[in-house]
């Protein structure tokens, strides 16, 4: 089976299950924090792949990475992922869940990348312009070696 399909199937199942429990928003927050933890700490992926750690230790790592107070939906999902030995795909599952949630709620994400700092007025005007298209999540970062650009996802 194509490993690209596996995370999306798990994410879809979690989204549907969370929907049945009216918990899609809470799970979305947990998936955001979890994905952020994977991005910020590469050792998390290695720890979850470590065969020496017990399933309880691995689930504890995931719960902490997702914010520390896991929902029942996240707990059941992690148990499922552990039982099917798919922890190496958890980061992708979190990203796929976030994409499903954003698509369902018509949320756009964007990032302004500039070579020089942008004043608050300009940044606010861009955010307002983007927000007119619907719910959005905007970020900004400055990289002196970058010429300039606006990307929307």
Please outline the helices and strands.
Elements: H1 5-20, H2 24-40, H3 43-49, H4 55-65, H5 72-83, H6 90-104, E1 108-114, H7 120-131, E2 136-142, E3 148-152
Parallel strand pairs: 1-2
Antiparallel strand pairs: 1-3
Helix pairs in contact: 1-5, 1-6, 2-6, 4-5
C-alpha end-to-end distance: 28 Å
Largest sheet: 3 strands, mixed
> Which class best fits the helix and strand makeup?
alpha+beta
Rg over C-alpha atoms, rounded to the nearest angstrom: 18 Å
Topology as a string of helices (H) and strands (E): HHHHHHEHEE
Q: Average pLDDT value? A: 85
Strand content: 5-15%
Annotation field: number of helices: 7
Number of strands: 3
Low-confidence segments:
140-148
Strand order of the largest sheet: 2-1-3
Describe this structure in words.
The chain has a three-stranded mixed β-sheet, with helices on one face. It is α+β, with helices and mostly antiparallel strands and 153 residues long. The protein is built from seven helices and three strands.
